[in-house]
Amino acid sequence: MLGASFFLGGLKYHVQEYNRVSARMQAGLLFLATIALLIPSAISQADSAAASAFTHKLSVGLAVLLIVAYGLGMLFSLKTHRELFASAEGGEAGGAPWPISLALATLAGVTVFVALVSEVFVESVQKAAETFGMTPAFVGFIIVALVGGAAEMASAFSGARKNRLDLSVGIALGSASQIALFVAPVLVLLSYVLGPVPMDLQFWPGAVVMIFIATMTASLVTNSGRSTWFVGVLVLMVYVIFAMTLYLLPPRS
Fold first, then answer.
1. Which range among 6-10, 38-42, 73-77, 95-99 shows the weakest confidence by mean pLDDT?
2. Residue among 221, 181, 222, 172 nearest 201 (CA)
3. Dihedral angle, C-alpha 5, 176, 94, 233, nearest 10 °
4. pTM greater than 0.70
5. From CA 198, how far away is CA 208, in angstroms rounded?
6. Rounded CA gap, 17 and 19, in Å?
7. Does the domain formed by 2-86+102-248 have CATH 1.20.1420?
8. 74 or 128: which carries more pLDDT confidence?
9. What 3-state class would DSSP assign to 245?
10. What does 202-231 look like in DSSP terms, one character per residue?
11. Counts for the chain of helices (H) and strands (E), in that order
């Protein structure tokens, strides 16, 4: 999403600028989440009962810390230092602002609609991908992620084409940090109440490595606060490398 936004916006505008402070904060939050995913996967190698209990306890503690970090990040960006997160450019005019009640009602309705449509699409695409012999890793990392984030991508790409790159970067990095710092930790905590078995934050090493590389890439390309179409190409190349690797990944023995 980030790379395609840079690329599509760069095709129309020679150079685009965005708020570097906001991008660096979102990238920093993603890096924190990556550390929380890396530690359980790096430490817990044994399959013993003691190691499993340790992983679950550690995951619960990390989940709480990530939720706290997400809340503090919201407080920092929306309350105490909101002046640092002003848009870097005006972009194309979008008309008069909506009343807050109408905006919230529309947001709630669209959110429910998008969630229902995404659920249907994801289930259908997942079955179709399995029919075509795609690996589960490729389906989960690429196909389901693309279909599930279609609405966010449309908004990010539209913002980039209107020279509102702050919006595009905010959507791309903000949605990723929201999932990593809020959704995933909440699922870990809810699994002790709703799930058949507790969920932890331990993932297979390949997934953690790709997440780490993606986070470092986002930090690197958003450090300057300026973008061109070639920066988007570089980010998309990293994504294609991941997709190619996951597509050709042999099944586990």
1. 95-99
2. 181
3. 0
4. yes
5. 20
6. 7
7. yes
8. 74
9. helix
10. ---HHHHHHHHHHHHHHHHHTSSSEE-HHH
11. 11, 2
Q: How far is CA 64 from CA 33, 36, 228, in A?
A: 12, 11, 38
Which pLDDT score, from 0 to 100, does residue 45 have? 60
Torsion of CA 152, 66, 105, 18, to 10 degrees: -50
Beta strand extents in 65-156 (DSSP E only): none
Residue type, 243: A
Residue type, 246: L
Query: What sign has the CA pseudo-torsion 156, 239, 37, 18?
Result: negative
Partners of residue 16 on adjacent β-strands: 227
Please write down the HEC assignment for all residues of 166-199: HHHHHHHHHHHHHHHHHHHHHHHHHHCCCCCCCC
Judge contact between 199 and 187, C-beta under 8 A. yes
Token digits of residue 44: 């817990």
| Overall average pLDDT of the 182-189 stretch | 90
Token couple for 212:
């780490």
Length of the chain as a residue count: 253
What is the rounded CA–CA span in Å between residue 147 and residue 122?
6
- Rounded Cα–Cα distance for residues 198 and 56 (Å): 7
Q: What's the one-letter identity of residue 100?
A: I
For 225, the token pair is: 């606060």
Q: Which of 252, 149, 145, 143 is nearest to 206 (CA)?
A: 252
At 218, list the tokens.
Answer: 């986002």
